[in-house]
Specification:
Elements: H1 2-18, E1 27-34, E2 37-45, E3 50-63, E4 72-86, H2 89-94, E5 104-114, E6 120-121, E7 131-144, E8 148-161, E9 169-181
Antiparallel strand pairs: 1-2, 1-9, 2-3, 3-4, 4-5, 4-6, 5-7, 7-8, 8-9
Amino acid sequence: MKRLLFIISLFIGIQAYSQEKASLEKSVTGIQIGFFGAEFYNEARLSESFTLRSQLELYPSIWGGDMYSKTGFALAPAISLTPKYYYNLQKRKDSGKNISNNSGNYISLKLEYVPNWFVISNTKDITVSETISFVPTWGFRRNFANNLNYEFKAGLGIGKILKKGYSTQVVPDLSFKIGYDF
């Protein structure tokens, strides 16, 4: 009986050890588009659950109506670095759910800089104020088809316009984007 229990426990131990642990892709590069902008990104794997997302974004602005002589639009660039911790990969894998291309829930801290490099607009002489912000976020990323994904994130942080006379302000981050991984 002891021998049988030993063999069973040894078999269970070997099975548990041989099961592949869930982990992130090495690197995921792609584009995402949504109501609140478009971005080109790269998520580089730092460990089994951590990535560092670097991205270039274009933020849209639209104005018009009775107060303005014409409807205007502008696209301003932003660059950001975002360390992300994916906290439910093993649970998703154990449930038989997709974890490819970093499908999972995460928490992150976005560091973003909005420079005054250029603005794409239908109005002349538009500039943006340089800003920097730190925004902790919670989000989830899911993949469907082969390389298509969608991502939702929400967060609230702080930011500052980098000019004299401006104080620190609250910065919301709410986004839903659909994308393609290369």
